[in-house]
Design brief:
With 414 residues, the protein is of the alpha/beta class. It folds into 2 domains: 226 residues, Rossmann fold, CATH 3.40.50; 162 residues, 3-Layer(aba) Sandwich (Rossmann fold). The chain has a 7-stranded parallel beta sheet with strand order 3-2-1-4-5-6-7, with helices on both faces. Strands 10-9-8-11-12-13 form a 6-stranded parallel beta sheet, with helices on both faces. Helix 2 links the parallel strand 2 and strand 3. Helix 3 crosses helix 5, helix 4 packs across helix 6 and helix 6 crosses helix 8. The radius of gyration is 23 Å and the shape is elongated.
């Protein structure tokens, strides 16, 4: 019988960790560690400059072990591979079978093989209960290797998340993860159709949670004329569309101010554009700021405007955070957004190309009465707390993993 109170030994596999645009990953793992589970993170890619910067701003529990490639990796992996030639061959066969249709990706995967061998061997040595691929692409190579390596053994449970980038990529690595994992997760009901097309209807839908950063001991002083946006500053996040929409509203109400939070390659172009339209005094760029500061900034703002047209956008965490912070949320119609902004009582969904519709939503937000705003904020916050907390998300993951362990009779689950 499985002892549900026993902490689990969990290994997470990432391409890289942490990543500035994926702070939710650290939140998930920190929540597991806070609940007594032993978590080890394996990174396929070596430490780079961006990760070093992310480590400065993204808190990771000191109880979490993070293992990265070393310079000695290739030699060590060669010796390890000699003990598991069938598993190595199985992974190489998958890569070479897809070389014609995905040559660039296949070459990337070949470079990953030594690290895949090292990670899988270490996982075998440490006897984890759960091996979880956080993204369903390159980490899937580790799951495939373990699947071949473990033979008829029923442990550890192989687990994988597929969503956002994975569903858009829809390549052989995604298929590999779907076909080798014992347990599949995704983060939106709208994603189910992808899994049905892949003949994987047993996927577990668990909404991606956020930390409930809500301190109401001192009610925030909200500026009625401040609009905020937050995202990576990339072209597909459409921050220039946010600026244009703000500029139109500013022509009607000159007291309006826009705060742009985030950093990225599009920043120089955006700053130059703001200068060209003469709004430097009304539009502020903060650069990347930690989640706690972003949340405080949201609490002090009237509205949150998000006009992304990124294909992989699925229930953006930043929209959840804005709802929790009490902003009037205006979001573009991205895949599944109705699961988050389920009615106009909690926010507005617009077409990112509909200038009139966006302007109307901004005007409504600015004119909203305090009584109406209070009702909206309460409903939105309660919805986020009920459906989208990190604590709830990870409790669902652990519950699903425990059921999988019990079903397989895992000897390490007792």
């Amino acid at each position: 019988m499985v002892n549900d109170a026993r902490p689990l030994r969990i290994s997470y596999i990432f391409p890289q960790f942490p990543v500035a645009t994926q702070t939710f990953a650290a939140s998930d793992i920190n929540e597991l560690a806070a609940n007594g589970h032993a978590v080890t993170v394996y990174c396929i890619k070596p430490l780079d400059k961006a990760t070093v910067e992310a480590l400065k701003s993204i808190p990771v529990s000191p109880s979490i072990t993070v293992l990265r490639p070393s310079r000695k990796l290739p030699i060590r992996a060669v010796f390890q591979a000699l003990y598991s030639i069938p598993a190595v061959v199985a992974v190489l066969c998958v890569i070479f079978r897809n070389f014609i249709h995905h040559p660039k990706l296949a070459i990337e995967c070949l470079f990953c093989v030594p690290r895949v061998v090292e990670i899988a061997t270490d996982i075998e040595d440490k006897k984890f209960d759960i091996v979880h691929s956080f993204w369903g692409r390159h980490p899937s190579l580790v799951l495939a290797y373990l699947r071949r390596l473990r033979g008829d053994r029923t442990y550890p449970v192989l687990s994988s998340f597929a969503g956002a980038y994975d569903l858009v990529a829809d390549d052989f690595l995604v298929d590999l993860g779907l076909n080798t994992a014992d347990v599949l997760f995704t983060h939106a009901e709208t994603n189910k159709k992808f899994f049905y097309l892949k003949s994987k209807p047993e996927v577990h839908v668990v909404y991606r949670g956020i930390p409930l950063l809500l301190d109401q001991s001192v009610p925030p002083k909200r500026d009625p004329f401040t609009i905020i946006t937050a995202s990576a500053l990339t072209e597909d996040k459409n921050v220039i569309g946010v600026i244009d929409s703000f500029a139109r509203a500013h022509n009607v109400e000159p007291r309006l101010r826009l705060v742009v939070c985030g950093s990225g390659p599009d920043e120089p172009r955006l700053r130059a554009y703001v200068s060209s339209i003469g709004l430097e005094e009304s539009i502020c760029f903060t650069g990347y700021i930690p989640r706690e500061i972003l949340f405080s900034t949201m609490q002090a703002s009237r509205a949150f405007l998000f006009l992304s047209f990124k294909k992989s956008e699925r229930l953006p965490n930043v929209v959840k955070e804005a709802m929790l912070a009490g902003c009037f949320v205006i979001s573009s119609r991205t895949e599944g957004i109705e699961e988050l902004l389920y009615s106009e009582d909690v926010g507005r969904i617009v077409n990112y190309q509909d200038a009139d519709g966006i302007h109307s939503a901004i005007s409504f937000a600015i004119a909203e009465s305090e009584e109406a705003a209070k009702r909206r904020r309460e409903e939105a916050r309660n919805y986020i707390i009920e459906k989208f907390s990190t604590a709830g998300t990870m409790a669902s993951y652990v519950s699903t993993w425990r059921r999988a362990l019990a079903k397989r009779g895992n000897p390490h689950a007792n």
